Amino acid sequence: MLYHNEDRRFPSLFVEDGETVTISTRNARETGISVLKMRPRTTAALLVLAGQPPSTAPRLSDRAAFEQIESTEGFVNLAELDHDGRIDGYSIPYIRGVLEVLDPNERVPPKSVKRLFPLSEEHKDCSCTPSRRIKKGATGIALSPGSSAAAVADASPSTRAMYSVREAFVPDFLTNLQIVSWVTAFGDIVVGPNATLVLDSSTNFVIADNFLAYKGSRIVQRASYLNLDVTSTMRGDILKIIHTASTTLNVDWSALAAQAPTKP
Description:
The chain is of the alpha/beta class. It has six helices and 15 strands.
């Protein structure tokens, strides 16, 4: 059940003892869950929204890395495919290959990256830009950021025989960081004893102030990629009741602090 917070925080969620609640970003607004439209400000943030976070990934709550926007016109959602199963006209393997080679330390993505393409694809029809003869549908193999294409080709005879090293065009919506993702936002999330919280396949990004789960509760992730940002306290296996729920959901933080943290 959702509870309104008078301090302007996002609504809080309480899953009662023995109950099962499913969070669906796809149907969030219909159920009263707050949804933020977030765009990346940096390459590292872009990789987070693309499901390829770097080792030092920024948090969803980092306003230097992510920006909340109102209008999504002109933006691309990487989770939404067009009628041809592509992303803004580009094949999924092509976009994935470009993302794999982006340097998260660069402020914004470059206009092009170096990739290895199978020679068998050299003469296939392509969808090319006027300045770069690059195939939208080609898969290719990404080279690590900063790699010398010539050095990679020289190092492996089999690579020279099977692949050509070419400069691949980075789509404008990536270089301009015109990416948007839906982020569900909560105040507190409390999962009661023997209760189950399910994050469905449409839920990839969640922000919560606090996330508390009692002993015997279950958290189920349906999506292959989930980024959960808890900005304050996250505790599980809580033994004694430390909340009340009437018109609002309230947590007794002193009572929680008095309970020794349990080991996973």
